[in-house]
Write a structure and sequence with these properties.
Shape: elongated
Strand content: 5-15%
Distance between the termini: 44 Å
Structural class: mainly alpha
Number of helices: 2
Radius of gyration: 22 Å
Length: 90
């Protein structure tokens, strides 16, 4: 994030505001693009939960999300899966 500086003239104020609006517009366009991706039908394997991408390649869910969105993923186990992996509830 850049620090805002005080404009020295009305024209500079307009230029700075225009630059700010252009940055915000770019962010909104990226968000809209992400939303449009989510509106498409995503084919999910019923067995392994991999997703078929645009090139008909089956990829892990984590890879699919990381390639398309600015996200970082972590892993955990939900309470229903804990017993399946040999862990005992505390």
């Amino acid at each position: 994030m850049t620090h805002a500086r005080k404009p020295t003239s009305p024209w500079e104020a307009l230029r700075l505001r225009n630059e700010e609006l252009e940055r915000e517009n770019a962010q909104l366009r990226r968000a809209l693009g992400d939303r449009e991706v989510l509106q498409d039908l995503v084919t999910l394997c019923a067995g392994c939960k991999r997703i078929r991408d645009e090139s008909d390649t089956w990829v892990r869910l984590e890879t699919f999300l990381a390639d398309r969105f600015d996200v970082k993923l972590s892993h955990g186990l939900c309470p229903d899966c804990v017993p399946d992996y040999g862990f005992r509830p505390r």
